[in-house]
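Deliverable D5.2: sample structural annotation.
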Amino acid sequence: MNTNNPCPCGQAGPIEDCCGRFIGGTAQPETAEQLMRSRYAAFATHQIDYLIDSHHPDTRGDVKRENVERFSRSVTWLGLEILNTEEGQVGDDQGWVEFIARYREDGSERIHHERSLFRRHQGRWHFHTAEYPKPAPIQRTQPKVGRNEPCPCGSGKKHKKCCGSG
C-alpha cells in the first residue's frame, strides 16, 4: 500500500493519515462510518487480512478468504458514497451505515448498494451483517391503457389487437 496516495474512501488527505492508520493497526476506528470507510479502502488496496479481522467474531466464520481476495483484486474501485448513518458514534454499541461503492468489472461500471450493521466487540467496531436495499419501484408516467381502448400508437386498432397483444 503506497501511503502517499489519496485515501480511496474519499476523505481528504493521504491514506496514511486516513484509513491507512486503521488498516495498519496504529489506530482504531472510533465510529461505524470510519470502519466502513476503512473497509472500502482495504478492498481498494487489497488488504485482505484487515477485511477478515474487521468482521465481527460472530460472523467471521462465514467469510471465505479466497472469495474476498478474488473480488477485491478482480475489480477497479471507483469511489465510495456514504448515504446515511444511524447511531454508530463514539458512545454507541452498534450502528448502521448505508453506502454505495462504485467499481468497474469486466469493462462495465457497477454499483454495490448496501446497508451495513456494525457492532462493538471488546471495545472495537466490527462489521456484522448487511442488508441490500431494494430499488425504488418504477412509477408509471403514462396513464394505463385499457385492452378495449384505442391503441396509443395511433393505428386505429384496439390496444389488445395492436401493441397490447404481446
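Annotation notes: Strands lie at 76-87, 94-105, 108-121, 124-131. The radius of gyration is 23 Å.
The annotation will be released with the project's public dataset once the embargo ends.
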